[in-house]
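User: Predict the complex with adenosine-5'-triphosphate.
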Amino acid sequence: MNKFTNGCVHVMNLLEGAHHIIETIEQAGGEAYIVGGAVRDMLLDRLPGDYDLASSLLPEQIIDLFPVVIPTGLEHGTVTVVLNHVPYEITTFRSEATYSDRRRPDAVTLGVSLEEDLTRRDFTINAMALRPTGRVDLFGGEQDIKERIIRTVGTPKERFDEDALRMMRAFRFMSQLEFDLDPATEQAITELAPHLAAVAIERIAIEFEKLLLGPGKQQALNAMLRTGIERYLPGMDAIIIEALAKQSLQGVSKDAVWTLALDAGLTRDQLTRWKRSKQQVHLAARLAPLVHRPLTDWDRYQLSDEELDVLRQMTGNDYPDRSDLPIRGRKELAVDGKDMIRFGLRKQQIKEALLHLEFGVVVHAFRNDQASLMEEVKRWHIQSENKS
Ligand code: ATP
Ligand code: MG
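Assistant: Here is the predicted structure with adenosine-5'-triphosphate placed in the model:
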């Protein structure tokens, strides 16, 4: 079986699993539907990454129906049913009461109708429900998918006033799907952009990362500029967003996505305000200075094979791997710390001497054999003593 059929069988099984869950719930007297992103993706002829379900049954009723159920978010009415090792999130139909902090609903009410559940969702394209017997589309989601438009369910101002993160989600979906923004939705964002300041930066960062990785990044960022929302993103301004929009770097991985922002002018300090992981910040800071200049042997020596691969993908340059370098690490140097101690160097000097030798060997200035390197240490030592 080749890779393609393998993938198809897997995807078929995912959908079959979802249908099995729906039928089981229906036989128990409940209702269940595939909802959200999966319905949208199927209409777009894209393979959904996962199938989320919504049901009229309460979590405890769902727990009784399936052998393996994990109570992943009982307070929101969510459980995860595991079928053939595949997790399916099932959330009880719910509505959301007022959002007094513009971040999270004050309370969720379980056990409402499907219609209410769909009404609380953000965009028409994300607010459809599907079961084997038919599709429920109350807000013209299918039409908006045909016309490639991001439009809120209900009055845009009210919906962004409830949850300001939705404004960032609008741009994220624009970029991922290469859709346009409905003019009334855009106008509401222009008016309510300052509300974004109340949203946790971690949640904004997730949406912004997805935006930067999407094929419609340029259109999405240009739409952001039209609304002025960039002023409420830490460290960002119109110049950086414009630079991000024009960027030619391709094939960026999720781990390396912040390299784009540093390359566009965000500083490392500003990036820390986005509360990204240490690894993400570190990787971005290492890679950003390298994406627009040829790599020296010393650059290649300092990069890991994985980092070199990320740079190849981002720049389209076919950098040679590290196998042609005289050494691939300090351990391959023909001398080590002990040789430096025997020579009479102290702690700090040892570090500096080894770095000097390492650099010289990598850039082909010195041969990597013990005699030449010790000769070089002597020369380096006399020179540094003279300097101090
Ligand atoms: P992806 O494929 O990127 O996961 P998705 O549509 O599944 O896209 P999620 O963030 O996983 O997006 O959300 C799942 C669904 O929950 C959405 O399709 C939408 O119906 C609803 N939703 C998520 N976040 C919000 C929100 N802030 N306000 C209203 N509805 C939301
Ligand atoms: Mg999802």
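The pocket of adenosine-5'-triphosphate (ligand 1) is lined by residues 36-37, 49, 121-122, 126-127, 163, 165-166 (CB under 6 Å).
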